[in-house]
Design goal:
Elements: E1 2-5, H1 11-19, E2 23-26, H2 35-43, E3 47-50, H3 58-63, E4 69-72, H4 82-87, E5 92-93, H5 100-115, H6 118-126, E6 147-151, H7 155-168, E7 171-175, H8 181-187, E8 190-191, H9 194-200, E9 203-206, H10 220-225, E10 231-234, H11 243-251, E11 257-260, E12 280-282, H12 291-309
Parallel strand pairs: 1-2, 1-3, 3-4, 4-5, 6-7, 6-9, 7-8, 9-10, 10-11, 11-12
The chain binds 2-keto-D-gluconic acid.
Length: about 325
């Protein structure tokens, strides 16, 4: 059958699909396709492997209800109208599980980098400003024994909590829509309200999905409730924090620093004021970007397509209701 890829994926995934006898069309340019271009291409194929934030809205599914499946090469699916996919009986799968370790590594990296202002220190040398030893300058904040507040304690948050406990004996608190006693017991974590998460955390790390409920939830009001020494880390989705309010909070020293692997929009403009603030580190959405993880993601997406094209249930299907 014919499969359309919205971007080039690691060879292992391509090979698996070719060995299964499918014909692949790969859009290998970095620039994302427009909605109309994607609909037009999807109409000529049996399945779509979607990488990156292509907006698959109700109109897409209405026009492409012939599709046997959509396989996302991501855990997040905020770019997909899942209700519309279900309405038109198109199964959609994601790659949940395989990227938790790599993404939590980036959250951990940002925590450390921001707590010691590593990226600005690099810039300091680059700009010729390292003049000598200054005992009271360039001081960071230590993480040992501090409180890590996780907003959205799922697979990625659990991996981060494990590292923070093992390396820094951090106390773990979390806020989710629902309490998860099993995870609490595993991590010795404490469930708190969103307000308490803001007030008690020395580091807040965001691992929630993006929804109407979580969009802009970290706004001026939220930042004002945080400690002036607090770090804000987001490796989930850029729209969970309000960028203008975050910039104000950093400029006014309402909070101490921020580490972002996600921005809104992506890519971020090179003149964005965040890039010139102290105690800030911004990365270009590299959470899952390791050779090992991207191979696993490509293989998982490919296996899901193979299942769907064999009229079997996709192992990582999101909208299970299509099979009922
Ligand atoms: C992906 C991600 O690299 O899985 C996710 O949700 O954000 C990243 O791992 C990105 O979405 C590309 O599809």
């Amino acid at each position: 059958m014919n499969i359309f890829f919205t971007r080039k994926i690691p060879q292992k995934g391509i090979q698996l699909l070719e060995e299964a006898g499918h014909t692949l069309t790969i859009h290998s340019e970095t620039l994302a396709l427009t909605k109309a271009e994607l609909i037009n291409l999807a109409k000529q194929h049996d399945a779509v492997l979607s990488v990156g934030g292509n907006q698959l809205d109700a109109n897409f599914f209405e026009q492409c209800k012939h599709l046997k499946c959509i396989a996302l090469m991501s855990v997040g699916y905020d770019n997909v109208d899942i209700n519309a996919a279900s309405l038109y009986k198109v199964p959609v799968s994601n790659t949940s599980g395989v990227l938790s370790k790599a993404t939590s590594d980036v959250a951990f990296l940002l925590m450390l980098a921001v707590s010691r202002n590593a990226f600005n220190m690099h810039k300091k040398i680059e700009q010729g400003n390292w003049k000598g030893f200054e005992p009271t300058a360039d001081l960071g904040i230590e993480l040992y024994g501090k409180t890590l507040g996780i907003f959205g304690l799922g697979r990625i948050g659990i991996e981060l909590a494990k590292k923070a406990k093992a390396a820094y004996e951090m106390k773990i608190i979390y806020h989710n829509r629902k309490r998860n006693i099993e995870t609490e017991n595993l991590l010795d974590a404490e469930y708190v309200s969103f307000d308490e998460l803001l007030k008690q955390s020395d580091v807040i790390s965001v691992h929630t999905n993006l929804s109407d409920e979580t969009k802009d939830i970290f706004d001026q009001t939220a930042f004002k409730k945080m400690k002036p020494s607090a770090l804000f880390i987001n490796t989930a989705r850029g729209a969970v924090h309000n960028e203008k309010d975050l910039i104000d909070a950093l400029q006014n020293k309402t909070i101490w620093g921020a580490g972002l692997d996600v921005t809104n929009p992506e890519p971020m403009d090179k003149n964005n004021p965040l890039l010139n603030l102290p105690n800030v580190c911004v990365l270009p959405h590299i959470g899952s970007a390791t050779v090992e993880t991207r191979d696993q993601m490509a293989l998982m997406a490919a296996r899901n397509i193979i299942a769907a094209l064999n009229n079997q249930k996709m192992p990582q299907v999101i909208n299970k209701e299509v099979y009922e």
